[in-house]
Task: inverse folding
């Protein structure tokens, strides 16, 4: 088997590779304060319906029934039993008193190591407003200063704690202070924490911890209050306290039964988080049979890639014939699990309603195209355009269905079949370039004289099998074909829509070439179906090469041990482009430009709560990089232009946009070869310029970027989009790479040469396998 001359660095978890912040809420809960905590959870969901982070529950005495009540109100509860033995030597405080115990136990928050940001909430709080500002905080330890006892101390209840405080070093300071007794601890403050911080904390606006005492005399709660804190002995669920009726009325707004709470959440306006929709909507549908809620739950399942769950929830209710939207969503879910005839029936029902018809027709066109029926696909797409001339998806399917297929010029016995994602006009530039580049790795002729195209997204049926078996071999790749949701199907659960039975009847050699495992941080596959298809593919393949060691480790983890050695490293051919293009000449001179690319597909998975921060940092970076060259935006797809629009709107920065999605392959290579530096977020906004000899810096929002940089032993060429000093690091690294540009280009060439050695060795094996 071919060995890798580059060092394979062990792969860590996706969050560590992308630097994406992991955020959690946390509370200490006991049986006495359970009613308050349940109301806190309800208020959090209803006041912030798009927020669903882990919620850590610190406890020592909760009953199973109480835990069940908590879990019913949040889908991501993390239980942590606390142990107070390490506080036994503290010299002050009555540990039988709940308030004192809570003040001690909250210190256990600082022993949490799984998160980058932890937001503590007391169980006598109720959330009334938007907490986005707290979720976007990235530095320090933040709290509201005490209202009664001076601004140098923080108020108890709300803390926003960053990674540097969630450490053994800071816990040691707390323990030392606790054991010395050099602190004050009463019902008003967290004495140990205040003693250690000595006023060194980030001040938050009082509206994030608005204490009840400020409303004495039955004053109304200010409209901008985000968190209302019922400090003092008398809690609303215990009968309350005279003089605070308006405040307690706000608390009681959330004192709802589970059924009423679920209904209230599902009626909320604005963007609902798909995990919360599923968690609250599923029992609601079981109880009521509500079709509209079933549609919302199904749509949430589809957004999360859980297509069978979407089918199940909508199949459990009776959908009236004239309810078009649920029929359309059910049709979408059914086609995503390859139940095409059932999907067609549902989508035809949806075409009866003008507001859903265009989308339904576009899905019908897609299914017809998947089955190879371009005439039917064009008919449906045209119907969609007739209903809505602006409908983008209908236009895309009309263009795809009307495209004239290239005429094959070679004989079958001289051709290789090639499964790939063949990108449409104005599609992603990297994916447009990939099929040709894969073919170049097998020889200079990339035309139909030597290649028979098999679109990965079309159903691989008997006719397709016959055509493939007539060729001398089958190549699958390149690109990130191992991704579950680009074009979902129930046959394989990855991009090639191939049923197991037909895969097993391919009788020519199969070469999987430079495929990537492309799941985002926070994205998962339908494990069983994907594993079964993957296993059969690996068993059948004569060559199985993945484009980075991260993908190799991910795939090997899904395979039995005896197949691990069959999975080998084959770099993406775009990374060795200079070696593949016949007559390649490095540019005699380069433009004085720096090209920036940002990606926006699955933006929530890329940026989390940090997009505003990312944009502000990029604004600063663009300003500073302007001293090094002309900064331009290079858009691999239409959506990539968003960074230019947002920088202009939010920060007043104008940046020329290069529409690379309109470029031909030679133009893509030429542009990237003539610039001095590319700062890119898409995988191929790094690999293509690297492949033509141009220095790169990767904006890491996906593990595959880090995988590639580790494979070439240059991890310093990447910066996480979540990095606390993103702008400064980008500019510093750009200066380093541009300071001696000739030396940097030589380094790129040297790294590329190592990848070329591996590609050449694999090519020798492939010539034997494919008989060429």
Result:
């Amino acid at each position: 088997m071919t060995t890798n001359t580059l060092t394979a660095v062990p792969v860590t978890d996706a969050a560590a590779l992308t630097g994406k912040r992991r955020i959690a809420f946390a509370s200490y809960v006991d049986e006495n304060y359970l009613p308050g905590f349940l109301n806190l959870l309800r208020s959090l969901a209803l006041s912030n319906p798009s927020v669903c982070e882990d919620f850590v529950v610190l406890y020592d005495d909760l009953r199973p029934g109480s835990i069940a009540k908590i879990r019913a109100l949040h889908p991501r509860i993390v239980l942590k039993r606390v142990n107070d033995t390490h506080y036994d030597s503290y010299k002050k405080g009555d540990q039988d008193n709940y308030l004192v115990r809570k003040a001690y136990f909250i210190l256990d928050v600082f022993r949490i190591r799984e998160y980058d940001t932890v937001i503590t909430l007391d169980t006598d709080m109720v959330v009334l407003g938007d907490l986005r500002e707290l979720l976007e905080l990235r530095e320090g330890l933040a709290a509201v200063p005490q209202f009664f006892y001076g601004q140098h101390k923080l108020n108890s209840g709300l803390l926003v704690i960053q990674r540097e405080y969630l450490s053994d070093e800071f816990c040691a300071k707390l323990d030392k202070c606790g054991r010395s007794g050099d602190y004050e601890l009463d019902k008003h403050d967290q004495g140990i924490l205040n003693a250690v911080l000595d006023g060194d904390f980030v001040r938050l606006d009082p509206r994030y911890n608005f204490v009840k005492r400020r409303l004495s005399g039955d004053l109304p709660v200010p409209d901008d209050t985000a968190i209302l804190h019922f400090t003092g002995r008398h809690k609303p669920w215990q009968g309350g306290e005279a003089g605070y009726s308006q405040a307690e009325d706000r608390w009681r707004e959330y004192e709802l039964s589970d059924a009423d709470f679920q209904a209230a959440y599902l009626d909320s306006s604005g963007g609902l988080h798909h995990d919360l929709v599923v968690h609250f909507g599923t029992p609601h549908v079981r109880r009521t049979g509500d079709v509209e809620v079933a549609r919302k739950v199904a749509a949430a399942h589809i957004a999360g890639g859980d297509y069978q769950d979407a089918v199940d929830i909508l199949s459990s209710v009776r959908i009236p014939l004239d309810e078009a939207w649920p029929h359309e969503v059910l049709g979408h879910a059914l086609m995503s699990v390859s139940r095409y005839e059932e999907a067609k029936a549902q989508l035809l029902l949806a075409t009866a309603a003008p507001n859903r018809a265009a989308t339904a027709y576009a899905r019908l066109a897609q299914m017809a195209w998947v089955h190879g029926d371009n005439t039917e696909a064009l008919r449906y797409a045209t119907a969609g355009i007739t209903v809505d001339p602006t409908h983008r998806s209908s236009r895309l399917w009309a263009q795809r269905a009307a495209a004239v297929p290239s005429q094959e010029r070679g004989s079958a016995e001289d051709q290789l079949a090639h499964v790939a994602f063949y990108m449409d006009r104005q599609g992603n530039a990297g994916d447009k370039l990939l099929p040709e580049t894969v073919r170049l790795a097998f020889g200079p002729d990339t035309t139909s004289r030597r290649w028979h195209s098999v679109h990965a997204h079309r159903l691989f049926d008997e006719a397709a099998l016959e055509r493939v078996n007539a060729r001398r071999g089958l190549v699958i790749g390149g690109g990130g074909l191992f991704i579950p949701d680009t074009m979902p199907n129930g046959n394989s659960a990855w991009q090639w829509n191939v049923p197991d039975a037909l895969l097993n009847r391919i009788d020519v050699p199969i070469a999987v070439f430079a495929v990537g495992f492309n799941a985002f941080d926070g994205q998962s596959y339908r494990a069983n179906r994907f594993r079964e298809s993957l296993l059969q593919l690996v068993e059948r393949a004569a060559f199985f090469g993945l484009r980075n060691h991260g993908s190799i480790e991910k795939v090997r983890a899904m395979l039995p041990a005896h197949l691990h050695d069959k999975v080998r490293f084959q770099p993406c051919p775009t990374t060795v482009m200079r070696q593949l293009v016949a007559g390649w000449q490095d540019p005699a001179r380069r433009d004085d430009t720096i090209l920036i690319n940002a990606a926006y597909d699955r933006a929530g998975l890329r940026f989390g709560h940090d997009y505003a921060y990312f944009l502000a940092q990029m604004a600063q970076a663009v300003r500073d990089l302007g001293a090094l060259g002309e900064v331009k935006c290079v858009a691999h797809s239409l959506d990539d232009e968003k960074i230019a629009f947002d920088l202009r709107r939010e920060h007043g920065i104008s940046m020329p946009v290069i529409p690379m999605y309109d470029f031909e392959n030679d133009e893509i290579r030429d542009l990237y070869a003539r610039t001095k530096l590319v700062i890119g977020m898409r995988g191929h906004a790094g690999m293509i310029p690297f492949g033509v000899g141009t220095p790169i810096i990767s904006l890491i929002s996906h593990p595959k970027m880090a995988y590639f940089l580790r494979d070439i032993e240059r991890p310093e060429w990447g910066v996480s989009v979540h990095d606390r000093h993103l702008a400064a690091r980008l500019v510093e690294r750009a200066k380093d790479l541009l300071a001696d540009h000739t030396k940097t280009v030589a380094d790129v060439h040297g790294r590329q040469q190592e990848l070329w050695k591996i590609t050449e060795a694999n090519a020798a094996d492939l010539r034997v396998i494919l008989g060429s």
